[in-house]
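Protocol step 4 of 5: obtain the predicted structure for the target chain.
Materials: sequence only (see below). No template structures provided, no constraints applied. The aim of this step is simply to have a reference model before the mutagenesis design in step 5. Sequence pasted as it appears in the construct record:
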Amino acid sequence: MCGIVGYIGKNNIKEQLLDGLKELEYRGYDSAGFSIMKDGELYSYKAVGKIKNLVEKAKDFQVEGFGLGIAHTRWATHGKPTEINAHPHFAEFSSIVHNGIIENYQSIKTQLEKKGINFLSQTDTEVIVKLFEDNLDNDAFKAFKTTINELKGAYATLLLTQKEPKTMFFAKVGSPLLIAKNDEEIFFASSDAPVVGKAKKVIYLEDGDYGYVKDNQIHLYRDNEETKLNWSDLPKNKEFAQKEGFRFFMEKEIYEQSNVIVETMIGRVSEEGINFEELDKNFLDGITNITICACGTSYHAGMVGSYLLQRNAKIKTTLEIGSEFRYKEPILTKDTLFIVISQSGETADTLEALKMAKKAGLKTLAICNVDNSSIVRLADKTILTRAGIEKGVASTKAFATQVMVLWMLSNYFGNINEYEIFMKISKACEVTEKLHEKIKRLSKRYLHGHGFFYIGRDVFYPLALEGALKLKEISYLHAEGYPAGEMKHGPIALADPELYTIALLSKNLLFDKTKSNIEELSSRDSTILTIASEEIETTDDFIKVNESNHYMIEFYEMMIITQLLAMEISIRLGNDVDMPRNLAKSVTVE
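Step 4 output (structure tokens):
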């Protein structure tokens, strides 16, 4: 989850930029850098890893008086986390930072290379600054407008050029960007957090906005016409700013999933199919089966993956709980690809299982959210989920991105192309006001029963397990996930009006069979909430998902609903959903 900071003023530019980057650390990153324009010269520093590395690298650089600065924390998408790929990016006399994805960067890059323009990085961002200089004649603002008009995709960007040393250019499409000010300073940022306590007023830029700042004057263009500046008051609380107006980090992270899922796909999903720069095409040579090992939420993601890998890649896939695998004296053969999944990369049971697989000579692959973690360092190959830092203890966006990586792997290994379906998932993860309000109203009916059953079939069974886990973690109510077809093999004995059943009913997978299981519970007078694209008359409550032609679109819509339902029930019970009792974010003990 990349972050942008910009500063125009005379109050220790370097420290202003570094302080702003530190306020964005909660978003997650793997490299950082800044550029400062002072007396017509550009000074730039970049470092891989934590911001402290950047601080150390630039410790001898001192700057006083007025200047302009741009800074960035990067989460690798195009290109690996290296210093060359870190922002800012440069051309001959200009520097740029950028969040988002330039969809047509490859075609622009090819055109520029034909003109003899060379590139250093693997990023799409470098293309923007090189294109800007190629477009530049005498009018830098005209060149900037021409450049952004040639871009397709999403971007929030700040640009400095020695040709206009007292000017900062900005533009926003898709990715967030704001302008803030006090009496003497102007700030840019990708969220409120870096400017709270420093600025008084803010403008949240709209898609299509662009402009420049010169001589402390902000020139904002909307629909290609300069527009009036409409300032709002900034929040005063830093944690509130980090939450971006949401009540809890968990709520913010549920809403973020629509954007985060795109981060996971960037550079990997295209019309030609799936590409992982982390893997070689011969990665599966000698492999006849796959074992997935994980714990908790990651285990549920792994279970979804086991369905998808067998269905799409036609590879026998087994699933193991990390804490059990270590002690069952497993038979490990070298024709097995051993996949471990962990949000933190430090999960003790999963790490020990990975060590066993490595000792036995198995090929290993980690799916993880934290680069340079223990699991990442040990595994042969790693695919990062790019979820950004997840502050809520109960995982939401980490689960969403883990499932996405496994789904992409099933396409990659199976040599199939579900590009059009992948492109619909971001929309499926959007939280509408109408949906959230309905769940808030429904939640008051599900507070005081003797338990919850979440039921589903196929990939909706692990989603039922995950939905039940979310509710247990933050509401402290008893909840269990079951395969819908297993209810009649014992659990249905519990059915009565005080047993709440959350039924996940897919129109695209085993609809009639799951519907029949729901009716069995209904006939025993269980209270049922059905999540489906069509209403079942015999159930008590209904949350509608959109009609779609693929079960994974339904999966992600239902995932959002189960997360919101657990959160709203917990809030009604007066719980702190971000810090549930007895739990930790990273489980580093057995």
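Step 4 remarks: The chain has a mean pLDDT of 90. The longest helix spans residues 551-572.
Proceed to step 5.
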